[in-house]
Design goal:
about 130 residues; Four Helix Bundle (Hemerythrin (Met), subunit A); mainly alpha
Length: about 130
């Protein structure tokens, strides 16, 4: 398995952890009635916390990031392009998503934004560069 695919697996695992943490927090905040409901009501129910809101937004943000990263990895595999640009970009993206997850959950806003920016602009840009020069 390529480094790029390992990074995709890592980013997907972070998403799984984010969804799991979100679900546990929403169930704790909403109680058994909310956990067993069809959840048609918004996440801003009585008892919702700032943490549950951050977890929900983090999951949405992570899915958006994966929607950009996944096709790049699949293109690299399909075209058999793996070079230092794509490998380091994939590792950087995975690392920045892990940091973004931690910073987002902890509410550390400036570092959360830095991690997002590095992952989005530098890692994604480097990956695209690696694909086009590979």
């Amino acid at each position: 398995m390529t480094v790029e695919l390992w990074a995709l697996l890592g980013v997907t695992t972070i998403l799984w952890l984010a969804i799991f943490a979100q679900q546990i927090q929403l169930d704790l905040a909403g109680g058994a009635q909310y956990a067993l409901s069809n959840r048609e009501q918004d996440h801003n129910f009585k008892g919702a916390t700032a943490l549950s809101g951050r977890l929900t937004r983090n999951v949405r943000n992570h899915v958006e990031g994966l929607s950009l990263f996944t096709p790049l990895v699949l293109i690299s595999v399909a075209t058999n392009i793996s070079n230092p640009w794509t490998r380091y970009a994939a590792i950087a993206f995975c690392a920045m998503r892990a940091l973004h997850f931690v910073f987002y959950i902890a509410g550390i806003t400036p570092f959360r934004s830095f991690a997002w920016g590095i992952g989005f602009f530098i890692a994604i840009g480097s990956f695209v560069f690696g694909l086009t020069t590979g």
